[in-house]
Design a protein that fits this description.
Elements (H helix, E strand, L loop, with lengths): L2 H4 L3 E4 L10 H9 L4 E5 L5 E2 L5 E2 L3 E2 L10 E4 L4 H4 L4 H12 L4 E4 L1 H8 L13 H5 L14 E4 L2 E4 L4 H12 L4 H13 L3 H8 L4
Parallel strand pairs: 1-2, 1-6, 2-5, 6-7, 7-9
Antiparallel strand pairs: 3-4, 8-9
């Protein structure tokens, strides 16, 4: 059995009002690298994104175990800030991190992790510092003003940085590294056409 076949799937959380644009770079290129993407909903019922996409989850949250996963991705959603409906996803993120399995959170999901206490002792970022401060969390001194942050097994990013978010995920999982990772970022973030040649040479185009 080859390395790709042995890879555990990546779990993408899906819920009503999820922000469609925040995880596409990550999931598309993870899939191209051989990871199976499995969607995880609050239940087995369909959910609808901010953009009106109807998604049928592959699994319900309570059925997902850290030991069966390579990564849990938590996209932003209006529900992170308007209700406690998504708190179970933050608790699942805690279980993943305690098991040493990576978690990647972007936009509103970072606030969910802040409320869960998962950012109190980890370097992190989000949309802006005062957005997380409003949660009342104790990690304000660990906030970093940058596009995306990786601290141990946790990746965080703000809503305008889906490419940097993907970059950190690829680095964490070893999908792309070094010159290839830099070229991928320059191509998709900066529209640097010269970077394509590096990716093509590496078989990553």
């Amino acid at each position: 059995m080859n390395a790709i076949a042995e890879r555990k799937p990546v779990h993408l959380a899906v819920y009503d009002t999820l922000a469609d644009w925040e995880t596409g770079h990550a999931t598309a290129h993870l899939a191209r690298a051989g990871y199976r993407i499995r969607t995880v909903g609050p239940s087995a019922d369909p959910v609808t994104s901010i953009g009106g996409l109807r998604i049928q989850p592959d699994a319900a949250l309570h059925d997902v175990r850290p030991e069966d996963s390579s990564l849990l991705i938590l996209p932003g959603a209006d529900l992170w800030d308007t209700s406690d409906d998504l708190a179970p996803f933050a608790r699942k993120a805690r279980a993943f991190l305690e098991a040493g399995v990576p978690v990647a959170a972007i936009c509103g999901a970072t606030a969910g992790l802040a409320r869960e206490g998962l950012l109190d002792d980890r370097a992190h970022t989000s949309a802006v510092s005062f957005y997380l401060a409003a949660t009342g969390y104790a990690g304000g001194e660990r906030y970093v003003e940058t596009d995306a942050v990786t601290d141990g097994h946790l990746v965080t990013a703000g809503p305008t940085e889906p490419v940097a978010f993907a970059r950190e995920i690829f680095r964490l999982l070893g999908v792309y590294e070094g010159e290839v990772l830099d070229a991928w970022y320059r191509l998709f973030h900066d529209s640097d056409a010269a970077a394509y040649a590096v990716l093509e040479k590496a078989g990553a185009a």
